[in-house]
Design goal:
This protein is 23% helix and 43% strand. It is of the alpha+beta class. Strands 4-3-2-1-7-6-5 form a seven-stranded antiparallel beta sheet, with helices on one face. The chain is globular, with a radius of gyration of 13 Å. 27% of the residues are buried.
Length: 123
């Protein structure tokens, strides 16, 4: 998969900055790439993925949103986000992604399915 354009809202402990880029599923990992040269900012092996789901903004816990620093943005309107839960160095984390222009949620659902397939293939 070449990747899907996303807006990363935070959640990975090594890269907490809100950023626009590409989310990829390939070679047994999920990775986020951004910048003019599309550098890999972080990646997680699919075996470390605990859960992937599409959640409405009002379902994302206020604590999680405030920790990520986008509480005010997320609670203004009903919107759906892709939430990827995983472990990094024994710490549970959850990266949250918005998909600009994905009004029908097709890209969110397609990415969620790709991640689930990759996780099943990894055993």
């Amino acid at each position: 998969m070449s990747g899907i354009d996303v807006e990363y809202l935070g959640g990975h402990p090594l890269y907490m900055k809100k950023d626009k880029g590409v989310l990829r599923v390939e070679n047994g990992k999920i990775s986020f790439w951004s910048g003019w040269s599309k550098q890999e900012r972080w990646s997680v092996p699919v075996k470390d993925i605990k859960k992937v789901e599409v959640e409405e903004s009002d379902k994302i816990t206020k604590t999680r949103a405030l920790l990520l620093g986008f509480g005010a943005l997320i609670f203004k309107k009903h919107k759906k986000f892709l939430v990827l839960s995983f472990d990094v160095a024994g710490m549970e984390s959850a990266a949250i992604f918005d998909f600009p222009g994905d009004s029908g949620d097709q890209n969110k659902m397609m990415m969620m399915q790709e991640i689930i397939k990759a996780k099943q293939a990894a055993g």
